[in-house]
Every structure is written in structure tokens, then in C-alpha cells.
Write a structure and sequence with these properties.
Elements lengths: L1 E2 L14 H5 L16 H4 L22 E7 L9 E7 L2 E7 L12 H4 L1 H4 L10 E3 L7 E4 L2 H19 L4 E5 L8 H5 L12 H10 L20 E5 L3 H4 L5 H8 L3 E5 L5 H5 L2 E3 L6 H14 L5 H7 L5 E3 L27 E4 L4 E4 L11 E4 L2 E5 H9 L4 H8 L3 H13 L3 E5 L10 H15 L9 E3 L3 H4 L23 H4 L8 E5 L2 H4 L4 H10 L2 E6 L11 E4 L10 E6 L3 E6 L11 H12 L9 H10 L4 H4 L3 H6 L3 E3 L57 E6 L13 H4 L5 E4 L1 H7 L6 E6 L2 E9 L7 E5 L9 E2 L28 E6 L1
Parallel strand pairs: 7-18, 8-9, 8-16, 9-10, 16-17, 18-19, 19-20, 24-28, 25-27
Antiparallel strand pairs: 1-6, 2-3, 3-4, 5-6, 5-20, 11-15, 12-13, 14-15, 21-22, 22-23, 24-30, 25-28, 26-27, 26-30, 27-29
Helix pairs in contact: 7-16, 11-14, 11-15, 11-16, 14-15
Length: 815
């Protein structure tokens, strides 16, 4: 029996040392393959490269070295195309691949670290089966056949008792399991609750972003801006592959301004840093909007022609006036052409369909047939009255005159972009209000969808560049995923029928706040499977653990094809699967054979990738083949990338009306049809809870991690270990010294780690890189303390409520 105890090699947790932090268990890692750790051969200088393309297509003259191409992680949005040197079957060098433009030849420390990481101590070597209590972290090795047989037997039995949809298959961005949920008839876990806070408010106004606030243009376009206002984003830290775009814009004359509670890396590289009280980004935007309205800095022509500001609202119901009532049972909402919105025609002194008049009234209160109407802009001006500059200054801690000047520059000094983020205010319960108000700023000024003027989350190039329509594999009509009865985060606390969870990635630790609720849920489930290359925190709760391959390993010559940053990138075989790991595709194929569904799947990953191209409806992609892409080093440019991508250049937006639909009448009952300030749910000034837990805990992004990935990369651990950062004044007030072990806690739970003094951290806050789990802390888990309050309004938003990880109050004391 293998007992995998992540902390067994540590010294007493009260006396943490650097060695203690950096040690990890080797029971499921690569230590057994001792020959792999002899550095004399595999870290020698690389010899001449041989044939780029599928691994081994051309070997070096000596016959022991070749190069192959793949891409790196997609979750960071970089998806860097990589050229990999293999010597004697081992990966020995990773470097940027050759691309159509050197701006796409990117790599960061995480990619370089893979030379060690894929052989690291947390790799799962063989399938494992739980032998102790769930969560006790006790497993025994089993064969693949034994693991598969148990999975199929347990799932089949549960589905017979509870229905096919009693199973959830959750797959993270890095995992590639498109066939697993359909062939099981399983749920997929619904909305994720991560990175969707700001987008819930921004995206409905534009009809873009998918609920995640993807920017309307690329960061490449910042060179055309007079100002790029970064709010709630640490671009220079979390977007390393594209960080040059920030400096290109700065060198081109764009004024780079960063608003952040902390003196972040991006703030340090900007022309100006404006500190702000955490969780008050919406108040800043509302104050800016009031300054623009009060000083009439708005663009009336843009507002009248391209926004919902002239639309009429029934003052009795708060609903937008349309030609006829909408059918609540309709599968798709009616467009503005099918069911027009109405505006007021001053010349005719009557309400008319919005497209029938060139100059509708932008303001006013009107009566027709006994019904009273107001324009959206009139209501907006009324709604702004409490949101004065002085009010915004008090909320945000930013002087009123600075907010006013920021508003003036944004509105009047030429094209300006607002760069939002996923690692800051997005993790607050009120993030949707900030997103909605940001949309208002763009709608008031016309700073959207033109050179230099865009809005949204610009981090991570692949999320904002050109897209390619790769074909999905066509499955039989009766092979579909089940409808999700709710989001998986709610399954922890609400009645549901789920009895089994297949986790393709680390869901239990990374995806949900408040670990106590997650643990109770995990204990209540009948069956859990974890599939991952690495033994994660979530794997500790599994009944069966399956070892997956990394991006570098494959049994076949071609494994996958993705749309990266403005190019297609192929996953070619670099090395053979390590240990007993199997690819995501093979795991699905193996299970399909046992379930009698194999005929519905591609026979191998090569056929799957070829079909993505051959069956694409895009003629540009349809004309490509795997060989053609490999002739171009496994990275092929998308069409039109010579100029930065621009959404809606004709200003016809992807909304119901084709205009910026800034009035959300689905939120009338919540008082948020127009953005109205609300405090965060927990981390706000004046909360009595601050008397006990005075520090807001910020969960932030970092160059060292992609969420909780690379926590076990020992080359990176040399430069970063999980710790909490406090301002020196907060340490002094608590009698704590830098590098002391501290306890971070609240009513939900606690964890222990070391503390660092950092004057860049705002007093009143604690800051920690997200994803810190028990294997790398003194004790406990970061998610033990995080806030999982889901606001009621969130369930009416496009992607459901955001999990407010950073809307968390804690106390820090010496352990």
C-alpha cells in the first residue's frame, strides 16, 4: 500500500523553514525513476536541432536528439508555441517556437520550468485507489484495468439507481475531455463562478465577452490610445507573454494609469498609480460618470445613435417600452427588429420605433395614452444624484479632484481604453456593478470599438485575439450531456441528485470558496474520480485517481489543436507518456470502449485533429492540414492578424437592439436596471465584523502560478513559496516579525504560513497569491477562510453569481 501524506517530510509546523516549505512527498512522484534525475546528461548544452514537426520525424545525426513542437498552458491565455529539445527520450530544453511574427514567440518562467516540472515529485505515476477514509490521503496503486473497471461499475450502478444525470463531469481549461460528459449523459457543473464578476455587468451592454468581460480589442491597440486606464488588473504580472504590449503603448505616448489598492507590478511600471479602497471600483466609475454628466462631457451624437440612452421606460413598471410583450417561453429573445424598442420623436410628439427616427429625444418625461415614460438617460441622471464626486472620494479614498480629472481625460483627451481584470475587484460580490458602470462610461463618451478606445479584460492574448472556428466532433443525437440542475458550487449546500463527480483538474480546492462546505459535500458523495497529471489537493478526496499526460507527452504523433494568440497551435508529440500516464483522449477512448460508445468517438487523436480542420466552416481553416501547419513549425497564423482585432468596428453591437443596451430591465426588482452602488458583502468599511477580523484578504494573480498550477514546480519554488504579505505597519501593530509563522483566520476557518513585510501592500489588507493549498502551507488551506456568499441578484446575471474570494475579512496573528 502507498500512503501518500503530503506533510510527512515536514518538521514541526510551528517552526517552518525554507526547506520545510519546499519539500514535497515523493510517493506518487518521479523519485522512483532515479535515473531521470542525473543531470550530467540531460542538462548538457543542446546539440543541433533536427526537423521541427512531429516528434522524431527527423533525428539528429547522432540519433539521440530531436526537436518537436507543442503549445503551453491555455488557462493563462498565453498558449505559447514551444520548441522542445529531446535528448535520449527526455525533455531537456523548452524555448519559444518560430512564428509569423516575433511578438508571438513567447515563453515565461513557467514554460521554462517544465524541463523539471513534468518529472517532479507530484506527478502521479500510476492509477490509485483510496484505502483510507475519504480525505485521509491514503491510496494504493492499481492497474488501469482495475481503475477503469471500478469506475464503470460504480457509475453504472449509481446511474441505474439515480438516473444518468446523477454524475457530474467537471473539466478545467487545461483538461481536454469533450466526450466524457456526453457519453455518460452527465451534468457538467454549470456556471463556474470564477472570473465572471465584472463581465456579468459589462457584457450585456455590449453583447460581447461571454460573461467574462473579454475586451473589445487587443492590447496591441493600446499604442493608438491617449490613455489606458487599468482598474483591478495586474497586466504586467499575469500576462507575461504579452507584457511587451504595455511598454509599446507607453513608448508610443499612451498614458498608462493603474488603479489598484496595492502598489502592484503594473502600478510600478505605469505613468501613475492611484490607490483605491478594496471593493470600491464601482464607486470610482460612478463618480467619473457623475463628473461626465455634470460637466456635459458626454457625446450626444454617439449616445443617440448607438446606445439605449434614448429608449423609453415605463415609469410605472421600470421596464423598457417595446412593440409587444415578450414570450417568456421563447427559446431565443426577439431582436430589436422583430420587437422594436421605442423612443420619443419630438417633431411628431409621439413615441416611435427606435430605428425610425434619426434624432430621438435624449432626455425628457413624456405622457401618451395615460402612460408616463422617461428616457433611459433621464433616469440615469436621476440615479446618479447620490453618486457625487465627494461621495465617490469618501468611498474610494481617491480625492474628488483626481476622480474628476480622470473623468475629463477619459472623456475629452482622445481615444481611451479601460482595462479591467480578473484578479482584483472581480472577486468582490459587487463586481457586476463595477462592470455595468464601466459600460456606462464607454456609452457616454463613445470610447469603444475604435482605434485606441476599447474596454474589458485585456490580459492573456488568446482570450482577446482573432478566433478560428474549429469544427467539433459530431456525436450521435442521443449522446449529449445532461442539463445542469444548478452550478456545482451550489450543489455543496442545496438539495440535488448528484452522487458522483469526475474532476478533470482540481475542482475541490481551486473552484470553491469556504473549504468547510466543500469538504462536507465531498464526504457526502458516493464516488469521486480525479484525473490530472499531478496529485492536487482535490485528489485527496477522490476514490480513484488517474494519471494524465502533460502537454508534452503523447502516444500518437498529434494530440490536439487549439486557437492560441492569433494563431493555430498544434500539440505534437514531444516525448512518450511518463510513468503510466495516459492522454486525456486515450482515457476517454478507453472508457468509451467499456461503455459501448467507442464507435461514436474518433479512432485516435490524429483523426480528431484532422476533422477539426476538414469539417470547419471557415474556408481559411478548412484548407489547412496537420502537415501544412507543421511545415510552419506547428504554429499557423490566423487570417487578418496583421492589424489588431476589433470587435464591432461598425458600432453594431451584439445586443438585442444592436446598440449598447445599458439599461438592464431584468434587474429592475433588484434596483440595478441602472448601476446603483452597493458595498461588498463582507470586506467593506463599517462592517462590525472588522472589529474582530480587520484585514481584507486579497487573492491575487502572479507570474509564478496559473491559479494553483505550478505550485509543485521546484525550479519556481526557489523564487516563491506561499506566504501572506502585510504592510510593515500591520506587522508592527501585531508584534509580528517578517518570516514569522502566522495564523490567518476568521469564523470559517484558518491556515498557517509564513508572513512577509511588504510596504506595497495596502494597510488594512493582507495579500496572498491564490491557490495556496495544504501541501505548501504550514497547515490548513487558503480556501478555509474565503467567502462563499452568493448574492441573490447573481442568479439573474448572465453567468450566475461570482464567488467573492477576495471579499473576505481575516485576522492575522503569530502562530
Amino acid at each position: 500500500m502507498v500512503k501518500r501524506r503530503a506533510n510527512e517530510e515536514r518538521k514541526d509546523r510551528k517552526e517552518l523553514t525554507r526547506r520545510g516549505f519546499l519539500k514535497g512527498s515523493a510517493a506518487c512522484g518521479a523519485a522512483a525513476a532515479a535515473g531521470m534525475f542525473s543531470t550530467g546528461g540531460w542538462l548538457a548544452p543542446a546539440k543541433a536541432y533536427a526537423g521541427i514537426g512531429p516528434a522524431g520525424a527527423e533525428a539528429a545525426a547522432a540519433g539521440n536528439e530531436h526537436t518537436a513542437c507543442t503549445y503551453h498552458q491555455g488557462h493563462c491565455g498565453g498558449m505559447c508555441p514551444l520548441k522542445c529539445t529531446v535528448r535520449d527520450g527526455r525533455l531537456v530544453k523548452v524555448e519559444p517556437n518560430t512564428c509569423v511574427d516575433d511578438r508571438y514567440e513567447t515563453i515565461c518562467l513557467k514554460g521554462i520550468s517544465e524541463v523539471q516540472h513534468i518529472y517532479g515529485s507530484h506527478r502521479i505515476q500510476t492509477p490509485l485507489r483510496r484505502v483510507g477514509e475519504r480525505g485521509a490521503n491514503e491510496f494504493e496503486p492499481v492497474s488501469w484495468d482495475e481503475a477503469y473497471d471500478e469506475i464503470v461499475e460504480r457509475l453504472t450502478s449509481l446511474q441505474k439507481q439515480h438516473g444518468r444525470d446523477c454524475v457530474v463531469v467537471g473539466a478545467t481549461t487545461e483538461a481536454s475531455f469533450p466526450f466524457l460528459a456526453p457519453m455518460l449523459g452527465a451534468q457538467t457543473g454549470g456556471m463556474g463562478g470564477i472570473d465572471n464578476g465584472t463581465g456579468n455587468g459589462l457584457d450585456p451592454a455590449i453583447g460581447h465577452g461571454g460573461g467574462y468581460a473579454y475586451a473589445t480589442g487587443e492590447a496591441r491597440d493600446w499604442v493608438n490610445a491617449n490613455m489606458a486606464l487599468t482598474v483591478g488588473s495586474n497586466f504586467c504580472e499575469s500576462t507575461l507573454p504579452q507584457v511587451r504590449l504595455f511598454f509599446e503603448a507607453k513608448e508610443a505616448g499612451a498614458k498608462m494609469i493603474t488603479v489598484d489598492p496595492h502598489f502592484s507590478t503594473t502600478a510600478s511600471k505605469s505613468n501613475e498609480w492611484i490607490p483605491i479602497t478594496p471593493g470600491t471600483d464601482a464607486a470610482l466609475f460612478l463618480g467619473m460618470a457623475s463628473a461626465i454628466v455634470d460637466n456635459e462631457w458626454y457625446d450626444e451624437a454617439f449616445m443617440a445613435a448607438h446606445t439605449a440612452f434614448p429608449y423609453l421606460v415605463d415609469t410605472a413598471t421600470g421596464k423598457l417600452v417595446r412593440d409587444h410583450a415578450e414570450d417568456p417561453a421563447a427559446e431565443e429573445p426577439e431582436t430589436g427588429e422583430q420587437n422594436p424598442f421605442f423612443v420619443w420623436d419630438a417633431a411628431a410628439n409621439a413615441r416611435v420605433p427606435y430605428a425610425s427616427v434619426a434624432n430621438p429625444a435624449l432626455e425628457g418625461t413624456f405622457t401618451e395614452g395615460g402612460t408616463s415614460y422617461k428616457t433611459v438617460f433621464t433616469l440615469f441622471k436621476e440615479n446618479q444624484k447620490p453618486h457625487t464626486l465627494d461621495w465617490a472620494a469618501e468611498k474610494t479614498g481617491i480625492p474628488a479632484e483626481r476622480i474628476e480629472e480622470l473623468a475629463r481625460a477619459y472623456a475629452q483627451d482622445g481615444p481611451a481604453s479601460i482595462a479591467l481584470g480578473w484578479g482584483g475587484n472581480d472577486k468582490m460580490a459587487n463586481a457586476d456593478i463595477a462592470g455595468h458602470t464601466a459600460a456606462m462610461l464607454a456609452a457616454l463618451t463613445g470610447n469603444i470599438c475604435k482605434p485606441g478606445a476599447n474596454i474589458g479584460v485585456f490580459v492573456d492574448g488568446a482570450w482577446n485575439g482573432y478566433t478560428g472556428d474549429l469544427a467539433a466532433w459530431e456525436l450521435p443525437e442521443d449522446m449529449t450531456s445532461a442539463d445542469d440542475e444548478m452550478a456545482a458550487y451550489d450543489m455543496r449546500t442545496k438539495q440535488n441528485k448528484v452522487r458522483a463527480f469526475i474532476c478533470c483538474g482540481d475542482f475541490f480546492q481551486q473552484h470553491y470558496a469556504n473549504m468547510n462546505a466543500t469538504v462536507e459535500w465531498a464526504k457526502s458523495l458516493d464516488f469521486i474520480v480525479s484525473i490530472d497529471p499531478y496529485f492536487t489537493e482535490g485528489a485527496k478526496w477522490a476514490d480513484i485517481v488517474l494519471p494524465a499526460c502533460t502537454r508534452f507527452e503523447n502516444e500518437e504523433e498529434v494530440g490536439n489543436l487549439k486557437v492560441g494568440y492569433n494563431q493555430l497551435v498544434l500539440q505534437n508529440k514531444v516525448i512518450e507518456p511518463l510513468f503510466e500516464a495516459r492522454t486525456d483522449f486515450r482515457i476517454q477512448r478507453d472508457l468509451a470502449e467499456r461503455l459501448g460508445a467507442a464507435d461514436a468517438l474518433p479512432k485516435d487523436s490524429g483523426e480528431w485533429v484532422a476533422a477539426m480542420l476538414a469539417n470547419s466552416e471557415d474556408p481559411y481553416l478548412n484548407a489547412l492540414t496537420v502537415d501544412k501547419i507543421n511545415e510552419n513549425h506547428g504554429a499557423y497564423p490566423l487570417e487578418g492578424i496583421e492589424v489588431p482585432r476589433q470587435a464591432f468596428p461598425d458600432l453594431v453591437f451584439g445586443t438585442t437592439s444592436g446598440r449598447m443596451d445599458v439599461y438592464y430591465d431584468n434587474l429592475v426588482d433588484f434596483g440595478q436596471a441602472l448601476p446603483t452602488y452597493e458595498d461588498p458583502s463582507e470586506a467593506y468599511d463599517g462592517n462590525p465584523l472588522r472589529d474582530t477580523y480587520p484585514l481584507q484578504l486579497a487573492n491575487v494573480r502572479s507570474r509564478f502560478r496559473i491559479h494553483n498550477q505550478f505550485a509543485d514546480a521546484s525550479w519556481i519554488q526557489q523564487y516563491y513559496e506561499p506566504y501572506v504579505e502585510l504592510n510593515p505597519a500591520e506587522l508592527d501593530a501585531r508584534g509580528i516579525a517578517a518570516d514569522d509563522t502566522v495564523e490567518v483566520g476568521n469564523d470559517r476557518g484558518s491556515f498557517q504560513c509564513r508572513v512577509k513585510a511588504n510596504p506595497a501592500v495596502r494597510p488594512g489588507s493582507a495579500r496572498m497569491i491564490e491557490g495556496a493549498s495544504a501541501d505548501y502551507l504550514g497547515s490548513g488551506n487558503l480556501q478555509n477562510v474565503t467567502n462563499d456568499t452568493m448574492i441573490e441578484r447573481g442568479y439573474e446575471l448572465g453567468t450566475g453569481p461570482v464567488i467573492p474570494f477576495s471579499d473576505t475579512l481575516v485576522q492575522v496573528k503569530k502562530a
